[in-house]
Write a structure and sequence with these properties.
Shape: elongated
Strand order of the largest sheet: 3-4-2-1-6-5
Distance between the termini: 10 Å
Largest sheet: 6 strands, mixed
Structural class: alpha+beta
Number of domains: 2
Helix content: 40-55%
Number of helices: 3
Number of strands: 6
Order of helices and strands: HHEEEEHEE
Amino acid sequence: MNIDKSEILALIIGQLRLDLTSLEQAVAIARDTATHADCLGASKYETMGLEASYLAQGQGARLLEIERSLEYFKRLTPVEFSSTVALSSLVTLDDDQGNRQLLWLASEAGGLKVIYDDLTITVITPRSPLGQRLTGKCVGDEFEVAIAGNSRSYDVVAIY
């Protein structure tokens, strides 16, 4: 399989930019709602303004997280080959159910998915259970990981 990690990196950056734009709009709407005169309420039981401010605060935190992820990936230079799984590795795994998945190990943006040549690539972090167990593995290694109470076995098929 011929994989261009630079193209995948560009897809990840593009998706993060899209996410950032839509979240900036959502934060602006939530902030405007929280401060709108109609949301202030006439009594302590009318909490729409308070609820909107909590939403704006949560979205603001998410916005900072995406900004940090975008900066991380913009600075990243993909490693073209490594014999062991490390940050910036793209890994093909087979699980015990016969499912194949492609994972990009990165410090940020865990859970982000991009499509490359009809393949779904998921970004995972070393902080995730799968990322913890995958780090340092080599092609041919087998390992198990418990996720949400279910134990799964994986085989490392390829490292890019």
